[in-house]
Amino acid sequence: MQLGWILLTIVVFLVVSKLISVLGQEPKGEKIRFVSNKTGDILEMTLISEKKAEKSEKKEPQGFNQNDFLVGAKMAFNAVVDAFAQERTDTLKTFLTPQVYEIFEKAIQERKEKEQKMEFSLISFVSCKIVKQSDEKNPMSVTVDFVTEQINALRDKMGQVLEGDPIFIGKVHDIWTFQKANKNTWIVSATKSEALND
């Protein structure tokens, strides 16, 4: 009888010891899926413990998501460059600070005076990444590095090509700074562009 109690005590001790050791371990990454009800798209992500997340991820300012921001930055980039080529100054005013708009508007006026036309096509984004993010909230600014494939050509009033090539796809490197104008609006506060040689 005593032997039975001794064996039972040993089994209980081993089970409790195993349970304690498992509970004491930091949870490992666990893959889960979220499905969008609207689009049916499946997003897979890995859950990690809060303690581990604090060490591995830099906290972003409240209400700021880098991935969502870059999607918007790409759309703004395409809209601005296309509006510049098509001389749509009203569109440019909505995306640019007054200082940057003045530069773009001056270049457009010079083209008009010379009766020149600009042709532009954005083929693809090779890369798009945030290279600088201010810690200040008022105003918050984010600098984005773009590498794109574009077709650019400048023609005179007779249609002759003065610069660029209407069929050549070239790589262009741009660095733009976006400034938060208000809670839901970002505008371009600085631009820098240069052609890249393959």
Keywords:
198 residues, alpha+beta, two-stranded antiparallel sheet, 5 helices, 7 strands
Topology:
Blueprint: H1 2-23, E1 30-35, E2 42-47, H2 50-56, H3 66-86, H4 89-95, H5 98-113, E3 117-133, E4 141-155, E5 161-164, E6 170-182, E7 185-196
Antiparallel strand pairs: 1-2, 3-4, 4-5, 4-6, 6-7
Helix pairs in contact: 3-4, 4-5
Could you describe the 3D structure shown?
- The radius of gyration is 28 Å and the shape is globular.
- 37% of the residues lie in helices and 37% in strands.
- The strands form two sheets. Strands 3, 4, 5, 6 and 7 form a five-stranded antiparallel beta sheet that branches. A two-stranded antiparallel ribbon has the order 1-2.
- It has 198 residues and is of the alpha+beta class.
- It has helices at residues 2-23, 50-56, 66-86, 89-95, 98-113, and strands at residues 30-35, 42-47, 117-133, 141-155, 161-164, 170-182, 185-196.
Binned, the helix content reads 25-40%
The total count of strands amounts to 7
Q: Give the uncertain stretches in residue-range form.
A: 18-57
Distance between the termini: 85 Å
Which band does the percent of strand residues land in?
Answer: 35-45%
Class per helix and strand makeup: alpha+beta
Shape: globular
What string gives the helices and strands in order? HEEHHHHEEEEE
Brief overview:
With 198 residues, this protein is of the alpha+beta class.
